[in-house]
Structures are given as structure tokens and as C-alpha cells.
Amino acid sequence: MQTPIFNSGIPTEFLLNQQPGSSTSTILINGKQSTGNSQLCAICGADADGLHYNALSCRSCNAFFRRAVTFKQTYVCRKDGNCDVNQYVRCACRACRFQKCLRAGMKPSAVQPRRDPTGSQKNRKPPKRKRLDTDDGILCFVWIWGGKMV
Question: Where residue 109 falls among pLDDT bands split at 50, 70, 90?
């Protein structure tokens, strides 16, 4: 017997498959089976690596959702808004993929703003090049960055 796991508009490729007379069930996501040992991405069905933005997802769907939210992307489906999204064709329709991220529970409010890992670049001075003569006659150049030789 197959019954939908969620009633929240998630397509029927997310199905609970329970054998009659059995207490174990498997989850079919985009045709792939998950028995609880391996976790599958709720968006594309690839191997998931954890919860991202409140949904179990793979790195690819995590990055897609983060970029879409960070850059305030708006996508339009060229078909009927019900395109297949799986690990093999997940890049085909970005609008349907983004909607599937939202239906899987990803929260745009959980995406943090972009950060520059080295700090602001506005007030940085360009490095200076300094010529050094060595004792053995070899000429070399070093970069001076913020008063320190690099």
C-alpha cells in the first residue's frame, strides 16, 4: 500500500511504501529507496549530508537555495510549474527546484547574509613591491603588505 507521507503539496514521488503485514516501511524519494540507513535529499533524492535551512538536503540543493535567496533570484517555469526535479535533471527548471526546496521545508529566513572572510576590502591599500639585493648577487622582490614583508 502506498500513501503520501505529507499532505502539504509535496508531489507523489515522496511515498511511504509499507508491505501488508509488515511493521517496516521504506521511503521512496524520486524512485530511490531509503530504509533509514542512508538519508536522501528531500529535493532531488541524492545522498543528503544533513539538515540545511531546516530541510534534509544534499550540498548541491543547499548551495542552490542559498544562492537563490542571497541574490534574490526570481525564477519562472517555462512549463506548467510541475517539472521533475531529481539528481539527474535538477538543473533543468530552477523555478520548480526552488519551489520544491520551499515545500521540503527550507526557510529563506535561515540563510545568513554573505560575509567576506577576509574583512572589508574598501580601505585596503594595494601591496608595495620592494627590491632587495642579496649578498650573493641575486636580485629578488618582496611584497610589502600593511608594513610586513610577505
Answer: very high
Q: What is the DSSP letter of 43?
A: T
pTM: 0.56
Q: Give the structural domain span for 51.
A: 2-110
Evaluate whether residue 65 is within a structural domain.
yes
How confident is the model at residue 150, as a pLDDT? 47
Tally the domains of the chain.
Answer: 1
Strand partners for 25: 18
Of 99, 103, 115, 116, nearest to 64 by C-alpha is: 99
Identify whether the C-beta of residue 142 lies closer than 8 Å to the C-beta of residue 132.
Answer: yes
CA angle, 146 as apex, 142 and 147 as ends, to 5°? 65
Q: Which CATH number does the domain housing residue 6 bear?
A: 3.30.50.10
- Say how many C-beta atoms besides its own lie within 10 A of residue 101's C-beta: 26
36-54 residue pLDDT tens: 557 999 999 999 999 999 9
Q: Is 137 a member of any domain?
A: no
Q: Is residue 140 part of a domain?
A: no
Assess contact for 44 and 86: CB atoms under 8 A: yes
